[in-house]
Amino acid sequence: xxxxxxxxxxxxxxxxxxxxxxxxxxxxxxxxxxxxxxxxxxxxxxxxxxxxxxxxxxxxxxxxxxxxxxxxxxxxxxxxxxxxxxxxxxxxxxxxxxxxxxxxxxxxxxxxxxxxxxxxxxxxxxxxxxxxxxxxxxxxxxxxxxxxxxxxxxxxxxxxxxxxxxxxxxxxxxxxxxxxxxxxxxxxxxxxxxxxxxxxxxxxxxxxxxxxxxxxxxxxxxxxxxxxxxxxxxxxxxxxxxxxxxxxxxxxxxxxxxxx
Length: 260
Prior knowledge:
By secondary structure, the chain is an alpha/beta fold. It has a domain at 2-11 and 22-78 and 157-243: 3-Layer(aba) Sandwich (Rossmann fold). The protein has helices spanning 48-56, 86-89, 96-101, 111-124, 141-154, 171-188, 199-205, 232-243, 249-258; strands at residues 2-12, 21-32, 37-42, 63-68, 71-72, 79-83, 159-163, 191-196, 208-213, 216-222. It is globular, with a radius of gyration of 19 Å.
């Protein structure tokens, strides 16, 4: 079980001893079982990406803790990530082979076994072995993100943080990658923390959806029970989604701006 308990995080608004601190996350608690997909949906500035970095161990919370099976500081190797910007996630001068070798360093695999692992993983994400010698600029957005997914799987992590992992892709490619992620979850029994502003994508992929608003999780709902939302923000978000005004919080932000 991956768990975050009482997570709080703030940042200084300006340098100096008298700097005020702005709260980004407050008392965030969540749990994600191995093999489960937990959606974390929120508008820009809600704190969702900060939460993702804390779950990955890239940042420390001011308060609270992250545990794996009840143990602190055990999450660095157990949790991997796929980020929104697939271009910067792969070194521009690395071939796909070199990018995929990064998580295998230190495992003392022979060349033949390494090649077999790489080709097998590429096949699982819908690419063939010919892609191993390609560079990032030779890949489409969907292909590059598939490489990032393959690299995350090669780490052997039990959970993957997907931080807006499909939001930069065209709609048709988004659908393909979401279906791929669902298939991979079934194959590997891996858990996902799917961070997004897109309720439609979350409703497709996630077992449960946690709605993050102004640094707090205001509601967590099973995918099949979204209509039971009680918090005003969650209900407004769902109403906009059902009305066809937008796929998620982007529409909610725009609607609020329109109201002045």
